[in-house]
Write a structure and sequence with these properties.
CATH topology: Lysozyme
Structural class: mainly alpha
Protein name: Lysozyme
Number of domains: 1
Strand content: 5-15%
GO biological process, one term: cell wall macromolecule catabolic process
Number of strands: 5
Mean pLDDT: 94
Radius of gyration: 15 Å
Shape: globular
Family: Belongs to the glycosyl hydrolase 24 family.
Strand order of the largest sheet: 1-2-3
Order of helices and strands: HEEEHHHHHEEH
Pfam families: Phage_lysozyme
Keywords: Antimicrobial, Bacteriolytic enzyme, Glycosidase, Host cytoplasm, Hydrolase
Low-confidence stretches: none
CATH architecture: Orthogonal Bundle
Largest sheet: 3 strands, antiparallel
Distance between the termini: 25 Å
CATH class: Mainly Alpha
Helix content: 40-55%
């Protein structure tokens, strides 16, 4: 059976929280999508008319993590470390599993080319086609965690 972590570790959760930030009321993300909490994309059937509590934001984060963890475990076909899993989770949390699925990053991971995979994080620093300083910092942090 393939061995790799099943849950996001503390380093991954901290990285996600740091870069997503906590917003208890609705806002539009960098590409204009309605968002709340720790980067939870608001689905069409969800209503967030009132502010979240911190506890509710934590619950949403846990739900989002579980969904993405399942997707990540299906995509990665080689053993990886907790730090690699956490870095990939931060990436998937931000961009979604579909972006990872079609990426050179995942191809490198699944070929156990981990140095090349780490460098691929840095390619994903754009929103709306434009490089963003915040995404550049995030990808550098994900790369650093991946290599640790």
């Amino acid at each position: 059976m393939l061995e790799h972590p099943e849950r996001t570790g503390p380093d991954g959760i901290d990285l996600i929280k740091h870069f997503e930030g906590l917003r208890l009321t609705r806002y539009l993300d960098a590409v204009g999508k309605p968002t709340i909490g720790y980067g939870h994309l608001i689905l069409p059937n969800e209503k967030f008319a009132a502010a979240l509590t911190t506890s509710a934001a934590e619950s949403l984060l846990k739900q989002d993590l579980r969904k993405h963890e399942l997707a990540l475990r299906k995509l990665v076909r080689v053993p990886i470390t907790q730090q690699q899993f956490d870095a990939l989770m931060a990436f998937v949390f931000n961009l979604g599993p579909g972006r990872l699925q079609s990426s050179t990053l995942l191809r490198c991971v699944n070929a156990s080319q981990f140095k090349n995979a780490a460098d691929q994080f840095l390619v994903w620093n754009k929103a709306g086609g434009k490089p963003l300083a915040g995404l550049t910092r995030r990808r550098q942090a994900e790369r650093k965690l991946f290599l640790s």
